[in-house]
């Protein structure tokens, strides 16, 4: 979803931070408003960087439910790559479901991972991202491009 994020952010003239601990190489896109941030290796180091800096005018794109919860707690917004908008109203249930899934995996039940990414997921993501960014821009008082 990075290309879609870069395209939307470019249209709205917004900064994008791609945060990684270096475990998966990310090629910088060479765009002026996109920064690659490499944090120390280790569990949750990238999440910590994001959660420490996110604010009310920011949107985090993540499939990591605990990170989404941390972002919401700091007043930011969070959207999953398949267009799920994380809110205070649904994050608790998502955290509980995540814990249940982890427990079932430990018991050897379930698995298989998420379904393949679809065109509907892409469309839902773009709509959710646009809505989250519009709300963040409105809250920040910055004009929408």
Q: Could you please describe the fold and organization of this structure?
A:
Strand 3, helix 3 and strand 4 form a beta-alpha-beta unit. It contains five helices and five strands. The strands form two sheets. The chain has a three-stranded mixed β-sheet with strand order 3-4-5, with helices on both faces. Strands 1-2 form a two-stranded parallel sheet. Helix 3 runs antiparallel to helix 4. It has one domain. With 145 residues, it is an alpha/beta fold.
Give the spatial strand order of the biggest sheet: 3-4-5
Which percent range describes the beta-strand content?
A: 5-15%
Structural class: alpha/beta
- Amino- and carboxy-terminal Cα gap: 21 Å
Number of domains: 1
Question: What is the secondary structure topology, with strand pairs?
Answer:
Layout lengths: L1 H11 L3 E5 L13 E5 L6 H9 L5 E3 L3 H9 L3 E3 L5 E2 L4 H16 L12 H22 L5
Parallel strand pairs: 1-2, 3-4
Antiparallel strand pairs: 4-5
Describe the structure in brief.
The protein has 145 residues and is α/β, with parallel strands linked by helices.
Give structural attributes:
alpha/beta, single chain, three-stranded mixed sheet
């Amino acid at each position: 979803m990075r290309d879609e994020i870069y395209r939307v952010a470019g249209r709205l003239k917004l900064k994008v931070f791609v945060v990684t601990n270096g475990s998966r190489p990310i090629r910088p896109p060479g765009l002026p408003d996109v920064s690659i941030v490499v944090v120390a290796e280790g569990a949750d180091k990238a999440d910590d960087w994001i959660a420490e800096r996110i604010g009310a005018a920011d949107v985090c794109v993540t499939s990591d439910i605990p990170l989404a919860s941390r972002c919401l707690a700091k007043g930011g917004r969070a959207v999953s790559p398949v267009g799920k908008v994380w809110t205070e109203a649904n994050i608790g249930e998502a955290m509980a479901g995540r814990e249940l899934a982890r427990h079932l995996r430990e018991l050897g039940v379930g698995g298989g991972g998420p379904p393949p990414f679809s065109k509907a997921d892409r469309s839902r993501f773009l709509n959710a991202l646009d809505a989250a960014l519009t709300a963040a821009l409105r809250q920040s008082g910055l004009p929408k491009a």
